């Protein structure tokens, strides 16, 4: 589903920063891939390229066989909206909107008719175990619950690929484990998942684990 061919990104600077060195990678439908590396190693750069948020400065990035470098901006955005969901470390929820409204808003840009949005949002919240909290405001939810709302928001557009940038970075160990359980469950349900992390414990959850260091992406040996 994802194919990188000598993909790289150098920020122009000055001075130029080679944030991602040329890399080759294939991610198959149904994979649960983790990418682990220290701060500043290029993890977000990698995720932003795969997520079509940034264009590589060299090489190619294919999504479902589509060479994304050849698309104009509106087409790339449309493709991103149809196929990719994002989860970030900071949950980025609107504080004065309920969980349901936060999730529903993600459908406004996806041309889902207004009358269908609430049902779809409710389903997504049920899927992450928050069916009983749909009218809660983010400030009344725990960190783990907020991240579940953010995951529901990522899922409501029915993406085939879920990209998570340090999804447990703001959570305590027990809550983080629950969020990872949820991601595993979604993966078992058919969603391809990529999780970026600096935490080796989180990295062990993947069916496949990659390592990134100074912009160099390599396969990691994972000890069970
Ligand atoms: P990580 O997510 O692993 O912490 P990033 O992918 O954010 O790392 O950054 C990789 C490298 O690229 C770092 O050295 C960072 O300082 C640099 N970098 C990130 N964004 C920019 C930018 N917009 N312009 C210049 N350098 C950047
Ligand atoms: Mg980062």
Overall description:
This protein is an alpha/beta fold and 224 residues long. It has a domain at 29-44 and 82-219: Rossmann fold (3-Layer(aba) Sandwich), CATH 3.40.50.300. Helix content is 34%, strand content 27%. It contains seven helices and ten strands. The strands form two sheets. It has a six-stranded mixed sheet, with helices on both faces. Strands 2-1-4-5 form a four-stranded antiparallel sheet, with helices on one face. The longest helix is centred in the last third of the chain and has 16 residues, at 173-188. Adenosine-5'-diphosphate (ADP) binds next to strand 2 and helix 1.
Short summary:
The protein is α/β, with parallel strands linked by helices and 224 residues long. Helix content is 34%, strand content 27%. The chain is built from seven helices and ten strands.
Mean pLDDT rating = 92
Quaternary structure state of the chains depicted: single chain
Number of E strands: 10
Instruction: Report the principal-axis shape.
Output: globular
CATH superfamily caption of the domain at 29-44 and 82-219? P-loop containing nucleotide triphosphate hydrolases
Low-pLDDT segments, ≥5 res: none
Bound molecules: adenosine-5'-diphosphate, magnesium ion
Pattern of helices and strands: EEEHEEHEHHHEHEHEE
> Looking at CATH, which topology of the domain at 29-44 and 82-219 would you report?
Rossmann fold
Write the CATH architecture name of the domain at 29-44 and 82-219: 3-Layer(aba) Sandwich
> Which structural class is indicated by helix and strand composition?
alpha/beta
């Amino acid at each position: 589903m994802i194919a990188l061919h000598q993909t790289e990104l150098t920020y122009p600077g000055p001075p130029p920063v080679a944030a991602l060195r040329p890399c080759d990678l294939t991610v198959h439908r149904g994979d649960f891939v983790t990418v682990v590396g220290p701060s500043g190693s290029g993890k977000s750069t990698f995720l932003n390229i795969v997520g079509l948020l940034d264009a590589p400065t060299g090489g190619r990035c294919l999504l479902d066989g589509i060479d994304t470098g050849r698309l104009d901006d509106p087409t790339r955005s449309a493709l991103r909206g149809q196929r990719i969901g994002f989860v970030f470390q900071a949950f980025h929820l609107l504080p004065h909107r309920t969980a349901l409204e936060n999730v529903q808003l993600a459908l406004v840009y996806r041309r889902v008719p207004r009358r269908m949005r609430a049902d779809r949002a409710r389903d997504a919240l049920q899927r992450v175990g928050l069916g009983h909290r749909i009218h809660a405001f983010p400030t009344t939810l725990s960190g783990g619950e907020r991240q579940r709302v953010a995951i529901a928001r990522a899922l409501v557009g029915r993406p085939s690929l879920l990209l998570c940038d340090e999804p447990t970075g703001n959570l305590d160990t027990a809550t983080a484990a629950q969020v990872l359980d949820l991601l595993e469950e979604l993966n078992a349900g058919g969603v391809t998942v990529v999780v970026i992390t600096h935490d080796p414990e989180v990295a062990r959850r993947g069916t496949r684990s990659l390592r990134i260091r100074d912009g160099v992406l390599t396969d990691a040996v994972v000890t069970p």
